[in-house]
Known about the structure:
- By secondary structure, the chain is an alpha+beta fold.
- It has helices spanning 14-18, 48-52, 75-79, 86-95, 120-124, 139-148, 159-171, 192-206, 244-250, 302-311, 322-326, 342-352, 354-361, 366-383; strands at 24-28, 34-38, 66-72, 100-106, 112-117, 153-157, 179-184, 210-217, 226-231, 235-239, 273-277, 295-299, 315-320.
- It has an 8-stranded mixed sheet with strand order 5-4-6-7-11-12-3-13, sandwiched between helices.
- The protein is globular, with a radius of gyration of 21 Å.
Amino acid sequence: MIQKIGQACCGCGLCSQICPKKAITMQEDEEGFLYPQVDVKLCVSCELCVKCCPVESPPKMNEPEQVLGVKHINTEVRCNSTSGGVFTALSDAVLTGDGVVYGAVLDAQWRAVHTRAETQNQRNAMRGSKYMQSSLGETFFQLRKDILEEKTVLFTGTPCQCAAISNFLKKERLREDQVILTEILCTGVNSPRFWQDYCAFLEKKEKDSILNVQFRSKDRGWTRETIRIEMQNKVYKKGYEKDPFCQCFAESLIIRPSCHNCPYAREGRGADITIGDFWAYTKLPEAFWDDGGISMVLINTQKGKQLWKRAAGQLEVCGSDMETAVCRQAPLKHPVWRNNRRDAFWRCYLNQGIEAALRKYTDYGVISRWKRKLKRCARRLLRR
Ligand SMILES: Cc1cc2nc3c(=O)[nH]c(=O)nc-3n(C[C@H](O)[C@H](O)[C@H](O)COP(=O)(O)OP(=O)(O)OC[C@H]3O[C@@H](n4cnc5c(N)ncnc54)[C@H](O)[C@@H]3O)c2cc1C
């Protein structure tokens, strides 16, 4: 039964949705990640959950057919997007053709949740990366209804979420040609509980309430990653190297355990289209560079190519290759590293609270700040 996969579980929730006996529910562990709990009294050991699980049964992988560097022609769109704004162009192509779009938004409690958009306004809330795990909730059955009503569906999410949708379509024998799967390149998803706690911590520290969060503001340019949190009376704005939440993310302390063994961190792709940041942009012609954001796009299937043709009119495009794509892109090579202080970090956080954990493990604490500075200096000296 599905519970046996333990920490390998990616938390997509497909097993709980398809169980014919309704024996599976998704429950949060102490880190705030969802895992299946099986009611053994209801379970009939049909193993459908395991057969459909995107970790146990990954869908077929394809080698990307095209690798592209991409910028949206509208600078305002690019400014409000994480990289080059390719998600907006792809979703516009679907929405103008009477289709629907699924993607992650932040809800009123600052949790990432997947929702459905029929209009550009609803879709705009999906723009921007939310660096914690998004919950799929009722997505599977909403999507089935859309397919039965013959709508074109663009689903966007992490590679494991796209794989879960792909397995769901096969299991339900739904028309796969109506659904275009677009995956983000994903280093790993952070703990929703830690993020919510961080929001509460920040509100208390700043004596203010949060109105809006942008994980990748372009205030200092695309390459100088900045978190921007709009509060009632001020704007909290910090570079990733200075913000404690972003430090925990970069130090791989709060990432879901399964991401450290992700089966999708490889060159072969399971979705129709893959989108990410073009971090190796200096390998593109110099005239194409700028700090407004450049997306990397991998077109992996014929279905992906067809949507791409409809979206390309809104985009400035520069051809590239897989060798360039993989450099500076860990998610195309191997799963994210696991910090050997991760367990100690969580023990500290769970026993002593978020402030103690931030003091000990990030620059929020003076001792930890100096330790990190000394380490950086030592590394620089060793490199000489
Ligand atoms: C957790 C996470 C890790 C990432 N790691 C990398 C990386 O290592 N390398 C890299 O090149 N790119 C990474 N990305 C992707 C990158 O940040 C951009 O999403 C991508 O460049 C698309 O850019 P855009 O300008 O078209 O995006 P936007 O318009 O900003 O589009 C955002 C898209 O991301 C989806 N999305 C946002 N948050 C989530 C979430 N929590 N779960 C599922 N889907 C979400 C939305 O549904 C939407 O489709 C990551 C994104 C996330 C959420």
